[in-house]
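Repro:
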Amino acid sequence: MAVAKITEIQASSAKSFEEAIKAGITRAEKTLRNVSGAWIKSQKVVVKKGKIEEYRVLMKVTFVLDD
């Protein structure tokens, strides 16, 4: 039987929500082993002078604990 843990992280991108998600997963995998999934809790944009400057996601990343 596997036991998993969930941690919450925020990531951002100047390009898109998809790129922000990829950046978050890539960064999570540098310090977490056995990343098995992520749930996008919220999405937000930063707007300056009427233009989107940054896409942000808040995600819950699931990873399986080692035995």
